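Recall the central idea of this unit: under ordinary conditions, the amino acid sequence of a chain determines the structure it adopts. In this exercise we apply that idea directly, starting from the sequence alone.
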Amino acid sequence: MSRYKIKPLFPDKIRPVSLEERPSKVNWGDFAKVYPGSREINSFLDSWPNILAARDFKEFIHHLRVAFQKKKPIIFGCGAHVIKVGLNPVLINLMENGWLSALALNGAGIIHDFEVALSGKTSEDVAAQIKKGEFGTAEETGELLNQAIQEGVADKLGLGEAVGRHLSRLDLPYKEYSLLYQAYRLNIPVTVHASLGTDIIHFHPCVDGAAIGEASLRDFFLFSSLVSRLEGGGVFLNIGSAVILPEVFLKAVAYVRNRGFPLTKFFTAVFDFKMHYRPLENVVRRPLGEKSKGYYFIGHHEIMIPLLAAALLSSK
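Accordingly, the structure predicted from this sequence is:
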């Protein structure tokens, strides 16, 4: 029994809103279209100067191509902003063509991905909704995602697989645009790294903190297993996560090395629209082995990731 006089404000009396009625800023009709690749992209890249970021980008594409040829893991770690700028079709196409062999998300990633699958839209107006006390109260999002997590834990699944399985069982009108559903369909591992209190489903009445913690911890160890396979030229990309995924990656590398995997040769890259401390230190600098190299590319995700995908799909 707690000795504190102040008691927790549990979410049993929360006032939910319908996802269908809630205004959203992102609609599936504005999502990126899949570019199949072409020889012209290779000529375009070859025309770039071999200086600074242009040289680094071409070099990094080379490492990705070698990893693809050697069947080494290519792990995409994505913040939720990647989903909110309409890049799901691009990433799904990379999955289908073997360029994305595993996916790591933060907790917000499953929320936006689920909302896209259910209603074809996501990203509420936080400034407007929070003033009305309605931010984060979408009933369907909280109920179905918490249900997926709890059912997954009962079957000893990680959080990513649990949500992917749940989406595969539901008849949702836009689930072809869902990363988690498509990854589950293609048997591509997805790990989700939650931080309790950071996601809107954490204050839904049916939330179960123990289930979220257990599922996300299982995903950390699955992610660590994926990281252990980077040795010899695998690649980890951190796209748009400023804190959670860089911290998880650093700890996974530490854990894996402690387990006896040296991780001397692998490659990393950060794609973000500004320089952040943790991605720079925890992805590009600190974890590298003696034969490893890290890169940091600054630019808008909605431009840089289609460019990256086009370069990979146009591989010679």
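Residues 35-313 form a domain with the Deoxyhypusine Synthase fold (CATH 3.40.910.10).
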